[in-house]
Amino acid sequence: MPSPVLAAEHLSKTFVSGREPRAVLTDVSLAVAPGEWVAITGPSGVGKTTLLHVLAGILPPDAGRVEWLGTDLYALGESARDGLRVRDAGIVFQFHHLMPDLTVEENIRLALRMARTNGGPGGHDGEVRSVLDRLGLADRAASRIEELSGGERQRIAVARALIHQPKILFADEPTGHLDGQSASGVLDLIDEACKRRQVAVVLSTHNPAVAARVDRRVDLRSGRLQTAGE
């Protein structure tokens, strides 16, 4: 068995709303291997986004550890952690978070430049046009983000997250606001990266159709992870 790309152990996270603390994560552990696609499932509001942000190095846990390829993420300073995330991870948010003042091609090239600045291989420039061709968006390369449909924007967001050849991809409800055809295009792109490039994928969803496409499902219930079906 290959060493996991992601290994999280005994994670806890509590938020305080008013006077009442709310334990969102309680003793959560998860490991993801290269080329494995894992879905974190559960209803809206259960804490899937919180867990994804902790795993992605965005939100520190109250307790526990997260390792990427043997590096303890939260033992690093914030600047070093940010650099590691830009170099080795791709992140797709529920809403695309593309740069509105840049064209489609410029948005994707930006991810390449940032990865290279932080010591990553960053892919190569020819891949930008190649990925646009695969998405059927080559004719939109010079378009502004505001000119794209919601499905086109999210496909570009996935392409941007994968263009620099990350080791791991985090995707937070990436199809939550898309129609069936657009959602299928986004999932196809993630599936290709997972199988062809051995990218480890952690995706959150409350959609059973999305969860059915992955290698493994884990359910988040009352702050704890359970194997789906248990």
Describe the protein:
With 230 residues, the chain is an alpha/beta fold. The protein is 33% helix and 27% strand. A six-stranded mixed beta sheet has the order 6-7-8-3-9-10, with helices on both faces. The chain has a four-stranded antiparallel beta sheet with strand order 2-1-4-5, with helices on one face. It is globular, with a radius of gyration of 17 Å. The model has no long low-confidence stretch (mean pLDDT 86).
* Number of β-strand runs: 10
Distance between the termini: 24 Å
Our count of helices gives: 7
Q: Summarize model confidence as the mean pLDDT.
A: 86
Question: What percent of residues adopt helix (DSSP H or I)?
Answer: 25-40%
Q: Estimate what percentage of residues fall within beta strands.
A: 25-35%
The SSE order reads EEEHEEHEHHHEHEHEE
Query: How would you characterize the largest beta sheet?
Result: 6 strands, mixed
Q: What radius of gyration results from the CA coordinates?
A: 17 Å
The global form is globular
Low-pLDDT residue intervals, each spanning 5 or more residues: none
* Derived structural class: alpha/beta
Output the strand order for the largest sheet: 6-7-8-3-9-10
